User: Fold this.
Amino acid sequence: MTDINGMCEPRFAAVREALAASLAKDDVGASVAVYLDGEPVVDIWGGYADAERSVGWERDTLTGVNSTTKNMVALCALVLADRGQLDLSAPVAAYWPEFAAAGKENVLVRHVLSHTAGLPDLPGPTSVEDLYDWDSVTAGLAAQAPQWEPGKAAGYHALTFGFLIGEIVRRITGQSLGEFFAETVAGPLDADFHIGLSAEHDHRVAPLIPPPSLTDEYAAGAPAGPDGVPREITGAVIRVGDTNSVAWRRAQIPAVNGFGNARSVALVQSVLANRGTAGGVRLLSPQGCEPAWQEVFRGEDRILRTPMCWTVGFGRFGSTFGWGGWGGSLVASDPGSRMTVAYVMNQMIDRDRQEDDRGPEILMAAYSGLH
Assistant:
């Protein structure tokens, strides 16, 4: 069985066992963290940082977490709202006047955060390189018409979520989303999570590994509908090779290109599960956390083609809220238990070909430790 390194309180031994089992079966390298009352009770890792299994996964290994980054973007918005700088019920155009074009004057900030704004697609055919041009992408989104009446339907804003929230943050603070996150969230918490990764950290990055039998050409796509036909992708086609590139690391594509490990993901998100504090640092008031688990939309998601409950920035699943990333990473928080669980790995799984129960099994093991 693979060696597991790090700290795990005895009552959470099932979490260590779940990670060991996953590394023995599907995973190459991975990390898991559980925070309770804003403090770590599990911080473990194991396996390898490379597909050749020649470099060990270390305590400070980082990897791309794809859409798990959306949790960080949402937290930035909630921090601004808690400070009184952002009104979640205000029109986006109150902060970004050009956004009112093409019938979007009634799109509210909470619509964007809950994937109900009607802007799930990037404007026009887009290459990955086009995503690196912030001003061009946001100008295109400002000019777009919504695909449905805002607030009346939901459709997962896979890439646009980060540009939309990021531009609102930039208009309010003058900082990019990555800069605001680094200064306001990661810095005070001493959290090793990055949106826009600088070169000094490159040596710590574990590249993402495509699913078994697939190559670096494996691309993210919208799920197939009931008829088995995938939805047409109108924006950029992102491949594993793109997410492992230096250009991707340096860019800010806040919906999808954060780099971290389970410790940093769980630490940051535990702020919301623990009424606004983690590690003795207060980022929000208790009331400022509540939108994270308050339902905004429930029903069929037009893009994911599955029933969803969206809150202000997160997916809600029973008593937990959070979100995961393409390939398998995830974070889930339970405000009732004041617990946050994160799982970050480098081996991706294609859910169309293989069931991926790695993250959920670790989450259930964490719950067993509570009882």
Notes: The two ends are 26 Å apart (CA to CA). The chain is about 30% helix and 15% strand. The longest strand covers residues 39-47.
